[in-house]
Amino acid sequence: MKLFKGLLILMTTLSLTSFKTNEVLVVVQNLRIEMLSNPTGIDVLQPRLSWETVSLQRGTEQIAFQILVASTAEKLWTNEGDLWNSGKVNSSASQYVKYTGKPLNKGEKAFWKVKVWTNKGESDWSQNASWTLGLHQYKDWEGRWIGFDRYFPWDNADQPRLSARYFRKEFATTKPVKSATASIIGLGLYELYIDGKKIGDQVLAPAPTDYTQNIKYNTFDVTQQLKEGKHAIGVILGNGRFFEMRQTKAYKQKTFGFPKLLMQVNIVYADGSKLTVKTDESWKGTANGPILANNEYDGEDYDARKEMPGWNQSGFNEQAWLKPEYVQEPGGTYEAQMNQFMKVMQDVAPVSITKRPNGNHIIDFGQNMSGWVKFRVKGEKGRKLTLKFAESLQPNGELFIANLRDAKTTDTYILKGQGIEEWEPRFVYHGFRYVEVSGYPGTPSKNDFTARFVYDDMQTVGSFESSNPLLNQIHQNSWWGIASNYKGMPVDCPQRNERQPWLGDRPTQAYGESFLFDNTALYNKWLQDIRYAQKPDGAIPDVAPAFWRYYSDNMTWPGTLLMISDMLYRQTGDISVLHTNYPAMKKWLLYMHSRYLNDEGILTKDSYGDWCAPPESIEAGRGVNADQKHPSMLIATAYYYHYLNMMSRFAKLTGNDADIASFEALASVAKTAFNKKFYNEKGYYGENKLTDNLLAVHFGLVEDQNKDKVHREIANIIEVKNKGHLSTGLVGTQWLMRTLSDIGRADLAYTIVSKKTYPSWGYMIENGATAIWELWNGNTANPKMNSQNHVMMLGDLMVWYYENLLGIKSDYSNPGFKQIIMKPEMIEGLNYAKGSYKSPYGLISSDWKKDGKAFAWKITVPANTKALVYVPANSADAVSESGKKAGSAAGVKFIKMESNRAVYELGSGVYSFNSSI
């Protein structure tokens, strides 16, 4: 069994008893199991613990901590750390503190707590938190894989349409139960029941992987469900990605087989004896249940007349059920799922219901999202209710479904005719705003339908508001689009027959996403998916997990491995991300170097170019298929240089010192070759495309003597040629906003984001978008490729919102927001911006406004961190903090004046600056 080596933080919400020092309150809180779907059943032997200190007093810094870990809660309450007593450790570390106590055995539970010493005083012990070691070795799984490796007569093997599989097992607990855990691998998707009640509130579990490489198991504490007496386990298996949605192109799409199950319940009685209930020949199964078919692309078909009341409870008559078959295991290693479950995160009510001439009704939920619809209905037995999902409407009011390709996106429900019936699907999700309902008896009301918004159970950690309503709406649309495409992996879209984890969609976008969502666990899981997909020679696919066999070789898509690793290190401060991924990153980059670097020093291989750059006009793109590749050696070579520099930096950080010189030497050669090949003495690169120039500038490829000319050319392209608009595709948009700020043209970045005409994010909103489109001309392009819920064209916009407009940025030299750089842009026309970000150390907030020459800025800096703050001011004497000269205010240290900014170092606390600008 291969253990998961990626990032883990143990965190669970709790609070410490407060204490007072000089009448100022200091508490420690938010000890979290942040990266876990459930703290029960992890397979990391040395989990890392994190906590947060909160103080009302400025300049609070942790100076020491002590952790106790015990085998029982009772021992921990008496301060007995029989598993681990760290002792008092003189350290400011409060993130990723590794457990180094006694090793746990499978199923053993560890209880822990922490206390801290700060420069303001000592805390009390926290309340207890815990984790449980799961089945971390292959032989810990005692059961056998069961399933039905065949179609049943009612399945449609041609489409293919496969019914759900149901399995059950009765057993008895003969003594009082001390503890019980249920561990399950239900592929493709499962729902687990004990005595008729669903275990957990997760949906669409487990997280998808390439099942030939690794598979995720989930563990639940079921102690409360297993009192002494008779019990029944019930499991429903859906297809998920295991029984592949499309099986017509075996050369392209991986298929894994029919759904299958491995699970066991480990019970410990109060007297110390044990019972294991496992999958074996004593179970019973059937595929003749009410879920007639389930397919992520097409929908779920449900016949309520075939329901089996009591099937997952003891005493059910199972004579008609079959003995399940022993089936082949999937082949991948068994790993605990360390990223969050998908859950129903929000319910959305309809905004309108419109009756169509054909008698059907179209429900508008007012928001493009992903998930499904729950409804209630009363009608005669055998009536068929159909729900068809779409993102938008045609001009005539009918659903627009051309952009769904051949995804049917339809759920059906056949009534059993027994009073009011309620239903929602189990094993599908849709991308939609509108639903057409046919077959509904009578007139449906808004109270009969609820949209259920489904995404990974991760906290929203960012907020943003400004004086520009358009910027605020773009932020809102971004939030919905990002959340919609979190599905145990980051997918490109939730609606059509694709829904794939394309690497090219996320390298910088994930960075921006991290300011809105606590996505650390998801992206660590995705890095693992990418590593598993890497070929022995170093090749990395365009899609990972590699459900599609796309190994096209290019720099921009596979290089996401480097970009996400770098983002996680910057945003979390976890150096293990770089250690874990360094070998795969190095192997890939040297693979590309060996295959595609020519004698001139140019990286010759690219597949996509600046993917989906906007047509010159909205009419020029009307009806045009956007699926067009324009490979670019300039892009490939620029990224090659950028990645060489990243690898040099990673080598230094991870102690791979022997690699540093070779990466630096290759980068020097690449820079010379790039300028020789692509620089034009008129002051631009390549064909003078905006993307070409942006890459050269942002990656540091421009020679010093040419920088001013290239900067002017960038500005000229935007101001004159584009009339204030962008002209970048997926690649260029990732570097657009920050590069403009870096060269002193934040005003141009603001002009771009404020546009409502084509091409712009505002144009999307003006044309009805409630998420982010795949294409700048998504309303006119050929519908083969014009998703209305994508994230790839966000580029670095959300990074720019938080780092440049709010001024909340992690210092790369002291990452994870241990040191914060706060330097908001002052842009004509933007009068205020306020927002916050929940960092690993706590809440960072920035609330600034300007009125003529007056500037006011409220700042929150979390305990155990420092901030370098750049206050707009014409002199240091013009800056006050809470009514005092800033330089003499408590917790404020003046550093220097820099370009009409007074620079201060702040400790933790809440500050209020005022200045003249």
From TrEMBL:
* Enzyme class (EC, first level): hydrolase
What are the UniProt keywords, alphabetically? Hydrolase
Q: Where is the Alpha-L-rhamnosidase concanavalin-like domain?
A: 355-455
The Alpha-L-rhamnosidase C-terminal domain, residue ranges:
808-884
Residue stretches making up the Bacterial alpha-L-rhamnosidase N-terminal domain: 175-345
Molecular function, one GO term = hydrolase activity
A Pfam family this chain is assigned to: Bac_rhamnosid6H
Task: List residues of the Alpha-L-rhamnosidase six-hairpin glycosidase domain.
Answer: 460-805
Reaction catalyzed: Hydrolysis of terminal non-reducing alpha-L-rhamnose residues in alpha-L-rhamnosides
**EC number(s) reported in the record:** 3.2.1.40
Tell me what this protein is called.
alpha-L-rhamnosidase
